[in-house]
């Protein structure tokens, strides 16, 4: 993430790269017992976890248009990006499919079993996919 102020485009791009679950997937996940059990709770055992609460906010953000974002929305997007990057750096060894580590990340909108998170400042997932698609279609044209 850049330290210089921007009009929010970079924040939105990084947020959309970090959050690789769509609103429907995230909503379905948040309704599960595994989702509700994962994460840290303010004040101890009771109440909703911080990540679960964030997940509900992320669903709302994913459904908003870019021109509807508020300063609070941008701040939460930056928080999500930071959390996902820090948590991904702590990936445990072995199969992570049924781990609290994965479940916590999924509460924040990132399923680590999907496409990897792009490097900071690197091309977005969409840009990398466009590049792969272009290479694939040019390879097909060369074989003809």
Can you tell me about this structure?
The protein is mostly helical and 144 residues long. Helix content is 57%, strand content 0%. Helix 1 crosses helix 5 and helix 2 packs antiparallel against helix 4. 24% of the residues are buried.
Q: Give a short account of the largest sheet.
A: none
- Taking all Cα atoms into account, the compactness measure Rg is 17 Å
Distance between the termini: 43 Å
- Class based on secondary structure composition and strand pairing: mainly alpha
The average pLDDT score comes to: 84
Oligomerization category of the chains in this entry: single chain
Indicate the low-confidence ranges by residue numbers.
none
What sort of overall outline do the alpha carbons produce when their principal axes are compared?
globular
- Total of helices: 7
Helix percent reads 55-70%
Beta percentage is under 5%
Total number of beta strands? 0
Question: What is the H/E string?
Answer: HHHHHHH
Which helices and strands occur, and which strands form pairs?
Layout (H helix, E strand, L loop, with lengths): L8 H10 L4 H8 L2 H5 L12 H14 L7 H18 L11 H8 L17 H19 L1
Helix pairs in contact: 1-5, 2-4, 4-5, 4-6
What's this model, at a glance?
The protein has helices at 9-18, 23-30, 33-37, 50-63, 71-88, 100-107, 125-143. The chain is an all-alpha fold.
Main attributes of the structure:
144 residues; mainly alpha
